[in-house]
Specification:
5 strands, binds adenosine-5'-triphosphate, 128 residues, alpha+beta, binds magnesium ion, globular, Heat Shock Protein 90, five-stranded mixed β-sheet
């Protein structure tokens, strides 16, 4: 596992929800590398505002696992979508999406079969 944590500005939000978001993404990454192993990267960055652009914080959770199966690429953020059978409820990404929306953020996903997956979440910094 590689951690790359930037110095981040304080931002308003729910610490509980951030924790839940991170744990859902990390567990998914871990599951995608189960048995074979691989590399997990968790990275944060501070995207400073320039010329009227919003100041933002980004969080990347990347793995070198199986990749997201093609058949669920368009539905994976809906509830109860899972490829893990008994072991998954399919609620993790739905919860992640809700938390990101609660904080005005955006989710970007890149995934490639057999190579891995990158989740990048970008939040606006909220000082109010
Ligand atoms: N990092 C990842 N690599 C590969 N597939 C992933 C990854 N993250 C999510 N997926 C796919 O998306 C599906 C939905 O993920 P989600 O977290 O919503 O549910 P789950 O992990 O199956 O169950 P749980 O509710 O326990 O989280 C997973 O079953 C898996 O197929
Ligand atoms: Mg999950």
């Amino acid at each position: 596992m590689e951690k790359q944590f930037a110095q981040l500005p304080p931002t308003k939000g729910s610490a509980d929800q951030f924790r839940q978001l991170l744990s859902n993404l990390v567990v998914n990454a871990q599951d995608s590398m189960a048995g074979v192993g691989g590399k997990l990267v968790v990275r944060t960055a501070h995207i400073k505002s320039s010329r009227g652009a919003y100041e933002r914080i980004s969080l990347v959770v990347a793995d070198t696992g199986s990749g997201i199966p093609k058949e669920i690429r368009t539905t994976m953020f809906e509830p109860f979508i899972s490829t893990k059978g008994e072991k998954g409820t399919g609620l993790g990404l739905w919860i992640v999406k809700g938390i990101v929306e609660n904080h005005g953020g955006r989710i970007h996903v890149r995934s490639s079969a057999g190579k891995g997956t990158i989740f990048k979440i970008v939040f606006p910094v909220s000082r109010a």
